[in-house]
Amino acid sequence: MNADFPENQEPDIALPNLEIETDRTDDSAARVADLQQQERELQQKINSLQATYDRMLQQQGTDARSALGRLVQEAVSELEQRKQALQISVEQLEKRRDRIREEMRKSFAGTSQELAIRVQGFKDYLVGSLQDLAASAEQLELSTAPPAKPERAKKSEPVPAESASAPSNPQFAEQTFQATVKQIRSLLDKYRHQPDYYGPPWQLRRTFEPVHAQRVSKWFFNQGGRGALQTMGSRLQNILIASAVISILHRLYGDRLRTLVLVNSPERLGEWRRGLQDCLGVSRSDFSPERGIVLFEDPEPLILKADRLMEAGEMPLIIIDETENQISLGLLQFPLWLAFAPDPQQMSSNTDDFRY
What we know:
Blueprint: H1 15-109, H2 113-121, H3 125-139, H4 150-155, H5 178-193, H6 210-222, E1 226-230, H7 235-253, E2 257-262, H8 266-280, E3 293-296, H9 299-311, E4 315-320, E5 337-341
Parallel strand pairs: 1-5, 2-3, 2-4, 4-5
């Protein structure tokens, strides 16, 4: 066999091993190349993910700023709406305050301009009738109220409450009693321009308008403290006028003044009681047969009470509510009485409904 091969030639049996090693080297290189390719792909994916992450962060930041801006804008808008709502509420409350003030002024202090004009233009038939009846009653020979002598009236003047010698038949004519007239006008001016809402009892505590002062002046100076006034259209305002009269007379005669109110129903008696308490600052204890104010539903007990007061040297003031359509002639004999005549638009055209 050795003769078949040259001396320097190696046998062919080692060739398969070399081929295996070469294949392994090629496989390793391929794997390395593949791994490098995978590394590059992974790096590209990482770079792509990093870029995506950066974009997402940037987008989230932009979205967050946009959302925050929207929230701020919505908050500002909501605050603006609340501000406008509050302004509207304030305006409504101010209007309501003004309306309440106006209602209070009308309820306690005066009447509307329309009513004042209508009242001024009204020719009060009942006032004239009552004045004529009062003049006729003065000429009657009534045992309970003898007519006052003119010469005696000229010699005596009404004096304040501290004096017990005040005349039993007061008169308020300006030419006769200048001091009393001056005092009454001074009190009316004080009620109008310097109202005292926390004054002592028996002093008027409500706002007093010119229309009310005009009515009270008419009752004192034109009617001499005995006559009827047209209703103001509201019982509260009638009570205000009556309270001013009571306050002035109480200033003149003090505790000698006794107010007798004639009203034809318990409900209206309650209104008079509350109204006089509110306007004069008196208490419930001042409403009793033995004190300042007495309330009546029928004229007969009132007349008897007034007679007894006159005999005791007291000064009764009779106030007649507007709903009293039947006025007893016995009420007109006393020196001080104030009747409120009903609204002419509510009066019947048949004047026989009013019996005296």
